[in-house]
Amino acid sequence: MPARRPSSQPAVRPDYLAFGRPDFSNEEIVAVTRVLRSGWVGMGPEVIAFEKELATFTSAPHVVTVNSCTSALHLSLLISGVGPGDEVVVPSLTWCSTANAALYAGARPIFCDVDRDTLCLTPELVLPRVTRKTKAVVVVHFGGLAVDVAALRKALPARVRIIEDAAHALGGHYPKGAPVGASGNPVCFSFYANKNLSTAEGGAVALADDEAADRLRSLRQHALPLDAWKRFSHPKSILISNQLTELGFKMNFTDLQAAIGRVQLRRQSKFAQGRQKVAAVYARRLKQLPFPVRLQADCTAPHHARHLFTAQFPWAQLPLDREQFILAMRARNLGVTIHYAPLHTMPLYNGKRRPAPLSGAEEIARAIITLPIGPRVTAADADNVMDNLAALLGGLK
Known about the structure:
By secondary structure, this protein is of the alpha/beta class.
């Protein structure tokens, strides 16, 4: 296909093209209205139905919903036996929740480098970070590209648990084709506003172990043996529902959120098709630029969930630095952003110590930008983004 020839100064959009704006239809509004009129808005039958439908979607024996992916990670570490004195290996190039979950459990996050092409962990990068104190590894399916957790499992000592941060990866597939969530590990999803499936806020854990799933259900609701819906629907259960044996949390999901989630789940195929079209435009046109741009591996492949579309630019060779470019794009109503700053360099995690370098994460973090993608971004929007990008960075033919 011949290169598109934008004008030297593309027209400024009349509206802001936000990164990851959710798409809520009238069907979600009807679902919320139904729950409001039911008189039961907390955790109840809609949550139960949503969990069953998510379990089918992810091919997981169990799905347990919670109030955020951060909570999902925290509870997954707890049910994996992680506690004070333990170490948890996490990638440096991720959102802070991945590392903070280890701190919440009383453990120490040990930062690991990431591969320059996949932006994810590999066994070769993880193994040197494993010590006798390592209790778990949290893998991040960055942008929606699933890590080969089966290969990582074979490489790790049997005592080390694997937790999957799949906040970006609902709808993605592992290298052998199974949906993300079907690995048997605790797999943590996010339903935050900009995610592939949005309920405004919320999360879930997909897992295989029956006892671990029951403990998750208890821990999310103060470690009570029965949740509010069971106490309501079985009045005699109040006689046993107040027997606490461990410290739990207030991390439950609600029927209001689940009603939205059930509709969003039915729309995932359409959302995925739209994301793939947008990614195809970006990939094609970025390859036509007169300077090298590094794309994430498999960014247009069917198994990639495409929560993010990232690209690494040679900023030293370009007329604008990255900050100038992002501000210029935003002035044109184009929501370009950055994912992420490397965590190992942040004072929260290393105090006053000088962090050991992680060259892959640091190099990627200096070069990377995220282009708008989501259920409300169209292929025409992606072309408009690229017209403006080319005009600013000297990519016009």
